UniProtKB/TrEMBL annotation:
Species of the source: Artemisia annua (Sweet wormwood)
Stated name of the protein: DC1, C1-like, Zinc finger, RING/FYVE/PHD-type
SUPFAM superfamilies assigned to the protein according to its UniProt record, in alphabetical order: Cysteine-rich domain
Swiss-Prot/TrEMBL keywords: Metal-binding, Repeat, Zinc
Signal sequence interval, chain numbering: none
Any one GO MF annotation of this record: metal ion binding
Start and end residues of each C2H2-type domain: 438-460
Length: 553
């Protein structure tokens, strides 16, 4: 059977009576099937826009309004309002996407992701702090499309969510994006400090000096010893000593507080030293490893011109209270100081490591930096780090941490508000769709804004600022009382050991060094300021109470 004409697109033969599209000048034929299929490719109805989108006649190089990046190729545009201009790859992205089978488990997500053409009011609010969970970069343009999880706060750029093995690796190799590929060899850094520390029993001093305890047991076996920091003999408390049964280690769950006078960190396990004198004026406790601190430090990065000398307290500061010149926290523990320059650092900052790693920025070395061309914000507390301040920094990625944030926030903490350990989180919790409220201060917070502690079983969340004061002190501390410019989330008295009794010339009774309560009222000195949340000296026999600063004056 013969055919009267053939489709010049697909080559199919047709009889004379079959309908077709024909060019009257050159007799170019297209059958209805090819014509309809072609129309479907040049005109689409997209869920992101109320009008039909028409394919641009020729390939162009232009920025896509969906992903915000420049593409070369076919684009679709609204003929009515000229917006949006979508690259064909973005125009036909799947509405729902599963990324459980990615090349790296860090970027897998349990739930399917939904293509979102714009931010909802709730997303728009949280997007102020949101970062892409694949590349960790921000969403700079709020009108661009994203992939998001409808069940929890998981957001990803279009290209990050759709990348697979080869494209994914090519993205990582581009400048500033190599966040998952380890950029150092483990053998080159055998003593590298890996942060955060696992729990509250570990700190930098223990990490550095506990090895000496294992290699040198003679000093540890001494039942009594003297120390330059205390006028009375110290007795070793361990499992072999009778006194051990009557002393309890620091335990926030049982509201037992035992703080080391040296590093001002909790004494949470044996062995440790305590004063043989039961007088409450002493209240002296010392970690085993804090008895091994060296007598001097040379070439400290913050003050290399002079040797820093160990002192149990700053001689030119009343009650030994000083401000650390590295972390800017107030401290009354052991100190390394240059008396000539009045340069003082607490014992943890005295041994601040040159390089660390941190789970907030895995697989990249963070180097200790004292000066940089520009400032930045700490990833954990989001507060500004001045360009002349200490920080741990990844130069490749522009990632910064306050030293105090990195060293003080442990991976898990125990808290008397929750029977389970709380874990430090850097991103929203999976399967947690609702809003986040701190269990202590009851204020709403955004999990994209810095880090937070969370109990998966009880669904409890806490600001680090709120968890640490309860852990160390009795009062939740309002955020405006925290030390701005160093760490918003860490309490300014985290390096202060309260307790002990003192005598001053202006009052006949002994005064106790405590943190002020709202019920303490106003200062008994002429300043007349409130005493709540401040360091104060308080008389337990009368209503006299005075600011620490007023005593110093």
């Amino acid at each position: 059977m013969g055919y009267s004409w053939n489709c010049d697109v697909c080559g199919t033969g047709h009889k004379q009576h079959k309908l077709s599209y024909r060019c009257p000048e050159c007799y170019f034929y297209i059958d209805l099937h090819c014509a309809t299929r072609y129309l479907k490719t040049i005109i689409i109805h997209h869920l992101s826009h109320p009008h039909p989108l028409v394919c641009v006649a020729k390939e162009i190089l232009c920025e896509c309004d969906a992903c915000g990046k420049k593409h070369e190729g076919s684009f679709y545009q609204c003929a009515t309002c000229s917006f949006p201009l979508l690259h064909s790859d973005c125009a036909f992205l799947p509405k729902n996407l599963s990324i459980q089978q990615t090349t790296n488990d860090i970027h897998s997500h349990t739930h399917p992701l939904t293509l979102a053409y714009s931010y909802s009011p709730h997303d728009l609010l949280t997007s102020m702090y949101t970062q892409c969970r694949v590349c960790n970069d921000s969403f700079y343009k709020k009108f661009l499309w994203i992939y998001k999880c409808d069940r929890c706060r998981y957001y990803a750029h279009l290209d990050c969510a759709t990348a697979r093995h080869e494209p994914f690796m090519s993205i990582l190799m581009s400048p500033g994006m190599g966040r998952l590929l380890q950029n150092f060899k483990d053998d080159d850094y055998p003593d590298l400090v890996h942060l955060p520390f696992p729990d509250q029993t570990m700190n930098l001093i223990k990490h550095l000096f506990s090895k000496e305890i294992e290699s040198s047991t003679s000093k540890s076996n001494e039942a009594k010893q003297t120390h330059i920091s205390h006028q009375h003999p110290l007795i070793l408390v361990d499992t072999t000593k009778p006194k051990s049964s009557t002393l309890s280690c620091h335990n926030p769950m049982k509201k037992v507080e035992l703080i080391c006078n040296g590093c001002v960190r909790p004494v949470m396990n044996l062995p440790f030293y305590t004063c043989v004198d039961e007088d409450e004026r002493c209240n002296f406790v010392l970690h085993e490893w804090c008895t091994r601190l060296p007598s001097e430090i040379k070439n400290h990065p913050g003050h290399p011109q002079h040797t820093l000398v160990f002192m149990p307290m700053v001689p030119y500061k009343p009650f030994g209270v000083f401000t650390c010149d590295v972390c800017s926290f107030i401290c009354n523990g052991f100190v390394y100081c240059c008396v000539r320059c009045e340069y003082n650092v607490d014992v943890c900052c005295a041994f601040i490591p040159d390089k660390i790693t941190h789970k907030a920025h895995p697989n990249h070395l963070l180097s200790r930096v004292t000066k940089r061309l520009l400032g930045g914000n700490c990833r954990l507390c989001l507060q500004y780090i001045h360009r002349d301040w200490f920080s741990f920094t990844c130069q490749d990625c522009g990632f910064h941490l306050h030293p105090s944030c990195a060293l003080l926030m442990s991976e898990t903490i125990r808290h008397n508000y929750d029977k389970h350990p709380l874990k430090l989180n850097y991103f929203p919790i999976e399967n947690h769709k609702g809003d986040y409220f701190c269990e202590i201060c009851e204020e709403e917070f955004y999990p994209e804004q810095g880090c937070f502690y969370h109990c998966q079983k009880c669904v409890h969340s806490m600001h680090p600022a709120c968890s640490m004061p309860i852990f160390r002190h009795k009062n939740p501390i309002p955020l405006f009382y925290t030390h701005y410019g160093s760490d918003l989330f860490l309490h300014r008295y985290v390096n202060v050991k309260f307790g002990g009794r003192h005598n001053i010339d202006t009052h006949p009774h002994p005064l106790t060094f405590v943190q002020g309560l709202e019920s303490d009222g106003e200062c008994s000195a002429e300043c007349g300021r409130e005493l709540d949340y401040q360091m104060i000296l308080k008389c337990l026999q009368c209503e006299f109470a005075i600011h620490h600063d007023c005593v110093c004056e």
